[in-house]
Amino acid sequence: MPTRAELAAELRLFASMLRRHADDPEAQAEAERLEVSARLIEKHGLLPDRTDARTMGHMQADSRELKIGKARAGDHPFPEALHAKGLTVTEWAEKQRPKLTREKVSSWYKPGKGGRRIPRAYAERILKDFGVPLASWPHGLKD
Predict the structure, then answer these.
(1) Which domain holds residue 98?
(2) Fewer C-beta neighbours within 10 Å, C or N terminus of the chain?
(3) pLDDT (tens digit, 9 = 90+) per residue, 41-52?
(4) Can you say whether the dihedral through the CA atoms of 127, 133, 134, 136 is positive or negative?
């Protein structure tokens, strides 16, 4: 089993190989994700720092919760507004009453087929709390 430092170095190596494809935005985004993963492994000790492959030993744990799920740039103003306030779509959805699922909330701003109209009450609450215009919902409002 590789140590944290070895795994982080491997991730950075893969990232550097992907960065050679400067004309491919997906490769650049994946390279950035690999860099972030390497930093998380080093910073938070998410893996044991041992070279003994026969046992996992004790893993170091960090008491802080890691947030994942940042909205991709350009998706929609709502997830971007949530991110600006330090929230994920999942966190926001779970705080609503009745509780919503991330999938349902995401379907409100999902482009193309498969999206749902957002209930007007939620759209108005999001406008009030985050400044997301009513006209920005691609599938319209449901009264």
Answers:
(1) 77-142
(2) C
(3) 877 766 554 544
(4) negative
